[in-house]
Amino acid sequence: METQRTFKVIICGAGVGGLALAAFISRNAQVEVVVYESKPEVSAAGEAIAIWKRSWQVFQDMGLDEELAKRNFPTPKEGEVRGPIYRKSDQKEDGYDFHSHLMPYGPLSIPRPKLLEMLQAKLGPNCRVLTSKRAIDFVVENKSAQVSVMFSDGTRDAADIVIGADGVHSTTRKWFFTDLANQQTDPVKAEAYLRLVPPKWSGTYAYRCNVPAEALQAKFPDHRALTNPYIWCGQDKHVVSYPFGAVVHFICYHSPPGETLDSVGDAHVVDVPKQHVIDAFVDWEPEVCVMLELMNPKVSRWTIFVVEGLPLSVSGRVALMGDSAHAMTPHQGVGGGQAIEDAHLLGRLLAHPKTTKDNLPAVLQIYQDIRLPFAQKKAERSRLNGLMYEFNHPDFRVNSKSSRVEMEALGKAVGETFGWLAKGGCDDDWMEAEERLNKLVA
Predict the structure, then answer these.
(1) Are the CB atoms for 368 and 313 separated by under 8 Å?
(2) Which residues, at least 6 apart from 342, have a Cβ–Cβ distance to it below 8 Å?
(3) pLDDT-derived band of residue 261, with 50, 70 and 90 as boundaries?
(4) Measured distance between the N- and C-terminal CA atoms of the chain, rounded to whole angstroms
(5) Long-range contacts of 179-187 (CB under 8 A, 24+ apart)
(6) Mutual orientation of helices 360-389 and 426-441 as an angle, nearest 10°?
């Protein structure tokens, strides 16, 4: 019956993942989609999104390759391209390069605001985006088999499924696991679910900085950061720098050993004086220190939170996606891409003509079974890369006294960790999902 194929989806969060999901679902005019965003406008902060081969397959499927061409963005490149140079820098003298990275696939880097703009252009007439709507609670309506969402302004809305695309500090995840905990008769199992509600501190801070290229050249004419992307590595810290027109952008990562979040506060982003960062890198080589000396007086410190080890991302008619399900560290540049891949698989499933109001819970399970293990595996890969950059990986015991041979072995291992990014696979994932859907309705 046609009425069975007509259903409503609420998406909490109008970030990259939420809007990409809405765009894919919009292909089916019989599905109503409402995207609720807590902020007053659709906007995004953070680094640009790296589009590797898997994400590029999604872009092509969505027609975003044409939108990029209109805006004169370059397309990703098959084959190896020159990447950043890794340098041992946690010493005042005699720092040295230990790995010149060849990326196995030339990724495209898209500013988040531009990507959001393009995604909104792909939304169908059956999709609405409403801002200043912060979800605060959810209720499963037993009689109607719908989920009601309550908002901070006193309003509410109901849908046949709710998708949490509301980030690392997800309200949807809080309700999701609190509800599962309340269903348990065993207090140990209930407590285990409740521990999954808050995100975890990764142990790392990120300081986002920039320096005028002209000032850096005047102070240090042959500075490496002026011409090449660099990853400056050292014990418990590393710096990622890249030239960008009139400025050099750089991010200082610091993983203070033994520090707990309780001792530093849980604010996600705060401004700190630049001396705070200078003091952390005081014993590093001059090229790092001069960038810190010349950077802007105020620096944003980002506390990097992650979501680790969720046993499930679907419960009944509620699902989690993107950072709400598997927020990860940025050390491989794949977090945004994983949200896009979630949207691709889940969105195509929900837009499929064989998906009905009655089989929605089973369709969501297909999404979870394919996407959650893969994304969690890549989150772990990103975490391990961070340990490599900061000389803390258990398989590579390097330190300030390590030989060049040991450092080059580390560099080779770093290069090998990026090999999967050239392989693609989103099309194969969709074929598996569609095959499961066909079996479900057979």
Answers:
(1) yes
(2) 17, 21, 321, 322, 325, 367, 371, 375
(3) low
(4) 16
(5) 179/138, 179/140, 179/315, 180/315
(6) 160
Question: What residues pair up with 34 in beta bridges, in sequence order?
Answer: 10, 128
* More confidently predicted of 214 and 397: 214
CB 186 within 8 A of CB 342: no
Q: Rounded to 5 degrees, what angle do the CA atoms 44, 22, 139 make?
A: 95
In whole angstroms, what is the distance from residue 236 CA to residue 254 CA?
A: 6
Dihedral, CA of residue 281, residue 287, residue 289 and residue 292, to nearest 10:
-110
Question: Which residues fall within 8 angstroms of residue 38, CB to CB, at 6 or more apart?
Answer: 13, 132, 133, 134, 135, 166
What's the farthest any 2 CA atoms get from each other in the chain?
Answer: 75
Mean pLDDT of the chain: 92
Q: Report which of 308, 341, 75 is spatially closest to residue 198, judged by C-alpha positions.
A: 308
Give pTM, 2 decimals: 0.93
User: Angle between the 53-62 and 16-25 helix axes, to the nearest 10 degrees?
Assistant: 40
Tokens 């001792």 sit on residue: 263
Q: Which two tokens stand for residue 170?
A: 């997800």
Residue type, 217: Q
Task: Name the token pair of 105.
Answer: 């696939």
Task: Please write the tens of the pLDDT for every residue from 165-184.
Answer: 999 999 999 999 999 999 99
**Letter for the amino acid at 145?**
A
Q: What is the mean pLDDT of residues 217-233?
A: 96
pLDDT for 77 beyond 80: no
Task: List strand residue ranges (DSSP E) for 183-229, in order.
Answer: 200-212
pLDDT at 169: 93
Q: How many Cα atoms sit within 13 Å of 283 on the Cβ side?
A: 7
